[in-house]
Design a protein that fits this description.
Number of strands: 0
Structural class: mainly alpha
Order of helices and strands: HHHHHHHH
Keywords: Membrane, Transmembrane, Transmembrane helix
Shape: globular
Number of domains: 1
Number of helices: 8
Distance between the termini: 19 Å
Protein name: GPR1/FUN34/yaaH family protein
Strand content: under 5%
Radius of gyration: 17 Å
Length: about 180
């Protein structure tokens, strides 16, 4: 059976995820006023990643499905925590920090197959995402004062590094669509 040339949800999942990381990097390193746009980028990425995860499950690609569905659902939850959760009085810096920290173990576990398969770009993306989530969690936990601010800046740079590797993976998927039987 020939592989579908139009049936690759990885491209829009990776594109949307990279987009949200770019916006987060801008907010944390260049212009904090981008925070509102970042939250909508988080929603956009979460929705597209979750849809892609369900699509990948239907295609039988459970590893990739697990990655994008987990991150997609997590991003949607973060969006809801910081929008509706604020309205309900549920959102606070400590809650945001622990929301971050809770993702560290799944990131580490999801990286194991990438390491075993020797997928360098994916490994680099996982390392950068782990560092991003850890730094962001520490930044939330330590607060916006002088103690927490450096962690937020580190998280911003990790967001850009993650974005780079995730968009590189997207590029690889685009090239695979154009040349499905090469390399």
């Amino acid at each position: 059976m020939e592989k579908s040339r139009l049936g690759n949800p990885n491209i829009f999942a990776l594109g949307a995820f990279g987009f949200s990381l770019a916006m987060l990097g801008v907010e944390l390193t260049i212009d904090h006023a981008a925070a509102g746009a970042t939250m909508y980028a988080v929603f956009f990425a979460g929705l597209l990643e979750f849809i892609a995860g369900m699509w990948l499950i239907a295609k039988g690609e459970s590893y990739l499905a697990s990655i994008v569905a987990l991150f997609g659902g997590w991003l949607l939850g973060f969006f809801l925590l910081n929008t509706q959760g604020k309205v309900l009085g549920l959102a606070n810096p400590a809650g945001n920090a622990w929301y971050m920290f809770a993702l560290l173990v799944p990131i580490a576990f999801l990286a194991i197959p990438a390491v075993k398969m020797g997928r360098t770009k994916l490994i680099c993306a996982f390392v950068a995402l782990f560092a991003l989530v850890l730094a962001l969690g520490l930044g939330f936990l330590l607060g916006p004062a002088a103690v927490g601010k450096p962690y937020m800046v580190i998280a911003g740079w990790c967001a850009f590094i993650s974005m780079f590797f995730i968009w590189w993976l997207m590029y690889d998927n685009i090239m695979e669509l154009m040349h499905p039987h090469e390399g």
